[in-house]
Amino acid sequence: MKIFVATKNLKKLTELKRILEPMGFEVLCEKDLEKPLSEVEETGTTFEENALLKAKAGLKETGFISVADDSGLCVDYLGGAPGVYSARYSGEHGNDDENNKKVLRELEGVPMEKRTAYYVAAIACVFPDGREFTVRGECHGHIAFEESGSCGFGYDPMFISEKGCFGHLSAEEKDSISHRGKALRLLKEELKKYIQG
Known about the structure:
Elements: E1 2-5, H1 10-20, E2 26-28, H2 47-62, E3 65-75, H3 96-106, E4 116-126, E5 132-143, E6 159-161, E7 164-165, H4 171-177, H5 179-196
Parallel strand pairs: 1-2, 1-3
Antiparallel strand pairs: 3-4, 4-5, 5-6, 6-7
Helix pairs in contact: 1-5, 4-5
């Protein structure tokens, strides 16, 4: 059974493939299309709304079951920012370095006990027959005083989880506790129900 992952982010694609392929899905992505995936304007006010927008666009372009993720970092001291604007927080989409620097600047002088934060991943799945669902995973932790490590992506070099900084965790260690790992496990369970039902 073919399933389309509607993302231009190769790191997210890799994480989704790690879950979907062992389930027997043939995972398709943008490079399998005749033309590039259209840009989707993320106008939703929640991660779930944005994930659904992207998944529906993927279904429209391919006709296959489509899966899309929207994720980000929510810092309590910043009122939940960057939130749904995580990828473009510094004003330039996908500039991890500038996004990280902006968060660290905004938290300058803030003590560790007030640097609580959590990652969110919402994954949407839409079917050609109109069925759809979303799942959500969260990982709670703190924001470090500086970046460290070279693993992961996004805000990982400054996010401290129960297992340590995401910037130092292997893919397997991160998957076991991360927001996306949790959401992917929920996605797997929901997909099983849909396939069986």
